[in-house]
Every structure is written in structure tokens, then in C-alpha cells.
Write a structure and sequence with these properties.
This protein is of the alpha/beta class and 263 residues long. It is 41% helix and 18% strand. Strand 6, helix 3 and strand 7 form a beta-alpha-beta unit. It is globular.
Length: 263
Amino acid sequence: MPFVTSAGAKVHFFDSEGTGPAVVLGHAFLMDHEMFANQVAALAPKYRVISIDARGHGLTEHDDSAFSFWDLARDAWAVLDRLGIDRVVVGGAGQGGFTALRMALLCPPRVDGLVLLGCSARAYSEVQHIGYRQVTDAWTGTAPLAAIAKMVAGLVIGGDRADHQPWLAKWLSGDRERVVAAADCLVNVDDITDLLGDIACPALLVRGAADPAFDHDTMDALAQGLGGRAEFHTVEGAAHTPNLTHAHEIDRLLLEFLGRIGR
């Protein structure tokens, strides 16, 4: 299995391989690299797709110490350096989008484009912080997980039971305490609004119309704050992870965006 060591973490990643332009994708909280299986199928072999398991998720291993989205961005660059990839389109959903933004800030000359599904550049408000902490504490606590997992699936994935089932199976069979440090990273995300103007590459932003995490105005502000050309689309009927329930529409938007920026 492909792994890269990065600052105390053994980072697992999937690589579709090939010689096409590279696209790296980061998953949402509680997910893993497999949430982009549909996008890999749609983009390869024309594009080389790399999807990375963040710390606390998938097959990535770390020492349970605290980390930030800046650390996850450095993990992703370590993967790309290991693969010898210089230039890339970076993207992600939710926390993967937080990471992608920081990747673009860390190495601007290497980023040809940015893809953001349901995310923001802002820190959470006090109300949001309390709400997310309640959910993550319940997730990592000792009460039966099934009820909260079903609630999270409905909010994060949307869709129907068939969309939820693969992820419920993973969550209920996994180690729920693995995400403690990742939850701290998420609820304590720093505000990078003032840095957005430094990101000059083209950007594609997509929000599910039923996303409970980020409303239209929040993502519109993100689009307006970026220093380069940004296009913002809303997917009707989708929730926080539109690529899982509306793969055809997301794949089309991705392919059109990559084509427009010459990748």
C-alpha cells in the first residue's frame, strides 16, 4: 500500500497513476479517500487522481497528537513530492476543502486550480463551535453510535439509505476514538479570510443546496474573496457531500472546469 511519512504521520493515499495532469482530492470529516471513487472513475485515465486519507481517517496512522489543517496540507504536499508531481489542481470536500485552501497558500506556484465542495475560509462561530463539539463528543463517547451515525449520515451525505449504508458500515465497525484529534482540528479551524486574496489560481466552488454546514452566503463570500477567477455552483437536492449523491453533476462540473484551465 502507498504511504508517505510526514511529521509523525504515516499518510496513506490512493493514486490512479498515469501520465495525465494531476488532481489531488481531500475527503470530508469521518470519510476517507474512497468518497472520491466516482470522481476517479470519471477523470481517469485522462487525469491522474490522488486521494489522501487525512490523519484520524482511513489507513493513515499518526501518534494522536494535535494537528491543524496546515499540517494536513503539508502531508498532502509530502505525498505529491514523493510522487514527483510538481503542478496540480487541489481540491476537497468539507475539511478536505480547508486543507486544499492551505495547500494553495503554502505553495502557490504549484497550484493550477482549486476545487472546493462545501467549505469556508472562516473559523466557526461560537454557536457553531458548541454545536460541532457536541456532535464530535457524542461520536467519540461511550453511548451507542448507531443513532448518531444515522443522524450524521442524513446531514452529511443526504440522499437515501442506499447512499448511507457503505459509510454506516465503516463507521459502526471502526474505532470511533480515532477521530478525537481530527475533531479538535475541525472545531478549532483557524480563520484565513484575510489570506484568500493571495490565491490567484482559477477556482470551482460547489455547494449542495441542502448543506447544513455552509450556507450560500458563506460560500459566496469565499468565492468573492479569492484572488483569482472563481465560479460558484449550487447542486439542488444535495447535502454536504454532493459528489456522493450527485456524482454525475459533480463529474461534469469537474471535467468542464479542468478543460477550461487547460488540464
